[in-house]
């Protein structure tokens, strides 16, 4: 027994002589920095190594790298490369909205923040059963309104217009709906062009203007087809409007296309094709590598931008950066 005690004491003494053991020395951090983790995650994702990509992106996302948060949110929302998980997608989109709700609308990352608000608005509109989030059209309207007014997001403008058309979550207001549709249509948003075009072509909620309506529907069809993802309802609407329009209406609609952002077919046929110059592009991933949350910015610049968008309603005085997760008092949504 005494021999065992001596051996034990000797072992302890030997350890003390060796000095303190460096905790974690054999397990250094997996990544040199959050930015490096993001880069490795993106590289792994692009090469199909999802198992390596997700931990790297999660590491970066937890440390506030916007690009990582956005990639994970979109991946889980679409079920692309990972199993679809709306609760996780909502959590990452929420992180982005909480951190950047009032970032300057002229910031290089403003478009990405606007996308996060649109995604959250859609989740609030539909609900997320996996996290017991009930549909809340009124709150969805607030989210769409912030993205539409402050960030000038065309999809948010379209979604908000749709709510004003149906009166879902807001007081029905066709005039305001048409205003938002027109704003989004000028940005070549196909669904907004088709919806506004149908209202004008059929004379629903607005004075009937068949030629302008047909022009917008045509432009919507062309834009959606060019994007390679034309919804069936746009294609069906285009075929119906074209079939039921006489020659004079078609000719007038074609003449209106340049005014609406399209190309007059007669002019296009006469002009030789010119190869466009390659613009200098900054990869989106580079803009998202070093992004830290900023203090809330004044909405003044966003208000000015919205005012210049051709009759868009002024941005609502809404700041959702604080307590964003709460859909109602005492009902905070936790990641």
Characterize the structure shown:
The protein is mostly helical and 335 residues long. Among the domains are: 85-187, Tetratricopeptide repeat domain (Serine Threonine Protein Phosphatase 5, Tetratricopeptide repeat); 189-268, no CATH class. Helix content is 59%, strand content 0%. Helix 5 (86-100) crosses helix 6 (110-126) and helix 9 crosses helix 10. 38% of the residues are buried.
- Name given to the CATH architecture of the domain at 85-187: Alpha Horseshoe
- Into which percent range does the helicity of residues fall? 55-70%
**Strand segment count:** 0
Helix and strand pattern: HHHHHHHHHHHHHHHH
For the biggest sheet, the summary is:
none
Question: Which CATH class of the domain at 85-187 applies here?
Answer: Mainly Alpha
Give me the CATH fold name of the domain at 85-187: Serine Threonine Protein Phosphatase 5, Tetratricopeptide repeat
Strand share of the residues?
A: under 5%
